[in-house]
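Sanity check record (used in CI):
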Amino acid sequence: MRLTQSMCTIAECAPGGEGCPPAAAAAAARPRLVKIAVVGGSGVGKTALVVRFLTRRFIGDYERNAGNLYSRHIQIDGEMLAIQVQDTPGVQIHEHSLHCNEQLNRCIRWADALVIVFSITDYKSYELLSHLYHHVRQLHPGNAVPVVIVANKADLLHIKEVEPQHGLQLANMLGCTFYEVSVSENYNDVFNAFHLLCKEVSKQQTTSTPERRRTSLIPRPKSPNMQDLKRRFKQALSAKVRTVTSV
Ligand SMILES: Nc1nc2c(ncn2[C@@H]2O[C@H](COP(=O)(O)OP(=O)(O)O)[C@@H](O)[C@H]2O)c(=O)[nH]1
Ligand SMILES: [Mg+2]
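Expected output for small monomeric GTPase:
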């Protein structure tokens, strides 16, 4: 499958793989897991966004309503993270209310963070935003799950149906960070959106689970290392010899 092939060429280094310095490989032994779901209307570029983030590539033609789960190890701010990204089928509004099937609801509950995508060329996808946002909040009650809003297809300004600043205003109202991107033309903005979510989730994980934080701060006992034992034994021996000769 074309997509799978291009996923193998991802620029980020795999844990312990070639190109990873030994220290980074060691730090990657048990990378923190960050689960991100990408939701939005149909045809807004969700799959393109996920593929762009993971492979840096824009292919242009994607399987419809795939709903695949992708995972990669990516180094962000010096920390190796295991990122899982769940692509989802497009949602629609039926009789003024959002229609989400149970599978999508499961994805939303599963996620540590969400990307809500709309296309500036599709007003209906913009209308979905606040419905989706409130739906996400309902499925994560009492939990400030980080959400970013992404306005895609910024390269198609000549056929826009939504002013990008309207997206920004709505995002501000909802308290979300807003990114205007063109998945087809720019990788950095796409990366920045995911990067922010990873940082937010990382922050939440370290502040919300003191038990986990405590255990991660306590160094794990190292397994006996023969070289080290030999060195310490020699040191102890020579110290003894010194003590004896100085008497
Ligand atoms: N011009 C342009 N086309 C895009 C962009 N992002 C996605 N597309 C196209 O929009 C169509 C739908 O994208 P897709 O990722 O399948 O949308 P999904 O249904 O939300 O997953 C595809 O033909 C993509 O090539 C973009 O930034 N600019
Ligand atoms: Mg898709």
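The beta strands are 32-40, 69-76, 79-87, 92-94, 97-99, 113-119, 147-152, 177-180. If this sentence no longer matches the regenerated tokens, the check is flagged for review.
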